[in-house]
Amino acid sequence: MSQQTLLNLPRLDVSSEPPYDPLQAFVRENHIAIQGSGSGPLEGLKFAIKDVWKVLGSTCGNGHPDWLRTHGPDDFTSSIVTKLLDAGGDLVGKTVCDELCFSISGENWNYGSPINPHDPRRYTGGSSAGSAAATAGGLVDFALGSDCLGSVRVPASYNGLLALRPTFGRVPGDGEAPYCASMDVVGFMSANPDTFERICPVMLGEDAQPTQFKRLLIADDCFKSVNDDVAQALAPAVEHIGKFFEKVEHITVAPNGLAQWVEVFRTVQGYQVWESYGGWIRKYRPHLSRGPKERLAWASTITLQQFNEASRIRKEIVARVREVIGPDAALVLPTAASIAPLRTAALEDINTTRLQSTNLLCISPLSGIPQLQLPLVKQHEVPLGISLLASRGTDLALGRLGAEIVRTSTI
Fold first, then answer.
1. Is there a contact between 40 and 76 (Cβ–Cβ < 8 Å)?
2. Residues 297-322: pLDDT tens digits?
3. Between β-strands 215-219 and 247-251, what pairing exists: parallel, antiparallel or unpaired?
4. What does the buried/exposed string (b/e) look like for 146-161 if buried means 16 or more CB atoms within 10 Å of the residue's CB?
5. CA separation (Å) from 22 to 14, 130, 134, 188, 197?
6. How far apart are CA 74 and CA 71, in angstroms?
7. Residue 205 CB coordination number (10 Å)
8. pLDDT tens sequence across 141-192
9. Rounded to whole angstroms, how far apart are CA atoms 180 and 150?
10. pTM higher than 0.90, yes or no?
11. In what order do the strands lie in the sheet with 247-251?
12. Catalytically annotated residues
């Protein structure tokens, strides 16, 4: 679909207000909705996008009113959005994200925090918080999010959604607000496995080679990094997933410990995030909320030498992951360290859970391989996520496998 064609599409809603929004999922100041082509594989499906992508006729907000104020109207529409419209999907709005996307909680002190439809007392997870809330709450059929350290995977886990963080570079990221150049990807989520399977080929295209998954690798060090009650709650899901493989094996992903991988991730991410935001912060002096402000202040102290050393170790991590996860294998591990925490939880407990989750979430971005979040079990009556990681470029096969795993689950 050309940009001129996109300009001529009728709007679903040209008002300043998003659609019915009981979950505080949609942006308001820069709301936009566009009707799709009317035919194609996504005909009849409604979708939303995280407010980090350009859409002609709107302005990207990136979770902060000062970002919205200091950036002009979008001059083009991101190609992935155009692709979904061309495939027949209807864009109904842009969704709230964490401030500058530098969090995984789902909080935004500027616009309000989207509500978890499974339990309003709990966090939604972020930074693609609004996308997850809108999808889990049935306001849309699917939604886009961006993912560096779990910004799609965590809210999908907390909200009981199927979601994919694709192979790095698999989905074009043009028109996205700058963040972490070497690890940030375009991800997507849906509550329905049939819908998810419809979306996969549109988002991903075809895999370069066919994949037959034969070996399931259980990441022992990842399961040991979460509390025993979480590992026990996920055991039925591991058993169900194992039925789709010829062989099940136990492995250790990081022989020297996941803590080193976390530090490499934090250094690479922090350095590149400051590259993206530092000039803007110095120029406009935006008001930053406590969490993002502290993380950005730390990021500004990372030296080029530290970044280069972390990048060197990262190459070793990539080689280790390639060695462990062959083209016929998938690695199973918890998506996040727990169910969605209560908003009233002590800060110390929240930080502990965040660190535990980082052990799990850093593997995919560091190595660039796809990760699929599966909604198979609940704990304390709310969703608890489990994930599959696979080799680079196996995204479509992985997505189709995940849809079948969820469809056949009786857990």
1. no
2. 999 999 999 999 999 999 999 999 99
3. parallel
4. bbbbbbbbbbbbbbbb
5. 20, 11, 9, 22, 27
6. 8
7. 13
8. 999 999 999 999 999 999 999 999 999 999 999 999 999 999 999 999 999 9
9. 13
10. yes
11. 90-95, 46-50, 142-147, 185-190, 162-165, 371-379, 382-390, 329-334, 215-219, 247-251
12. 50, 127, 151
Specify the pLDDT at position 17.
66
pLDDT beneath 50, residues of the chain? 1-15
For residue 338, cis peptide bond before it (omega within 30 degrees of 0): no
Run of H or E including 343: none
Rounded CA separation 225/223 (Å): 5
Q: Can you tell me the distance from the alpha carbon of 82 to that of 186, in angstroms, rounded to the nearest whole number?
A: 14
CATH 3.40.30.10 fits 3-204, yes or no: no
For 340-347, the CB contacts below 8 A with 24+ separation are 340/116, 340/118, 340/119, 340/122, 340/123, 340/124, 340/125, 340/158, 340/159, 340/382, 340/383, 341/122, 341/123, 342/121, 342/122, 342/123, 343/121, 343/122, 343/123, 344/121
Domain with CATH 3.90.1300.10 in the chain: 3-204
Cα–Cα distance for residue pair 235/225, rounded to 1 Å: 15
Within its chain, how far is the Cα of 383 from the centroid?
Answer: 16
CB 317 within 8 A of CB 324: no
Which residue do the tokens 């963040």 mark?
A: 179
Tokens of 180: 């972490």
